[in-house]
Amino acid sequence: MEELKFIMEKFATSGWDLISIPAQQWLDGKADKTTLISAIEQADKECGNCGCDLDPMYKRALDLL
User: Fold this and answer.
1) Which of 14, 23, 48, 63 is deepest in the core (most CB within 10 A)?
2) Which long-range contacts does 34-43 make (Cβ < 8 Å, 24+ apart)?
3) What is the distance, to the nearest Å, from the Cα of residue 38 to the centroid of all Cα atoms in its chain?
4) How far apart are CA 3 and CA 21, in angstroms?
C-alpha cells in the first residue's frame, strides 16, 4: 500500500489535472476507483512512452489497484 501511496502522491503533484485530481481524491479517501483507473489508463495512453518519471508508474498503479 505504501508503494501505491507514493505513486498517487507523485500523480497528485504532477500538475496534470487528468491524473492529479483523481490521485488527490484517492489520497483524501474520496476516490471513485473507476474514475481513478480510467484517468490512469488515459494518462498512460497519452503520455506513457514520453520518457518522463511517471511513465512506469501508470502501469504499476493499475497493477496495484
Assistant:
1) 23
2) 36/65, 37/62, 37/65, 40/11, 40/65, 42/18, 43/11, 43/16, 43/18, 43/19
3) 10
4) 19
- Residue identified by cell 481513478 is 36
Cα gap 28→47, rounded to integer Å? 25
Per residue in 35-54, pLDDT (tens digit) is 999 999 999 999 888 888 99
pLDDT at 44: 95
SS3 for 33? helix
Three cell numbers, residue 64: 496495484
Check: CB of residue 15 under 8 Å from CB of residue 54: no
Dihedral over alpha carbons 24, 52, 62, 6 (to 10 degrees): -50
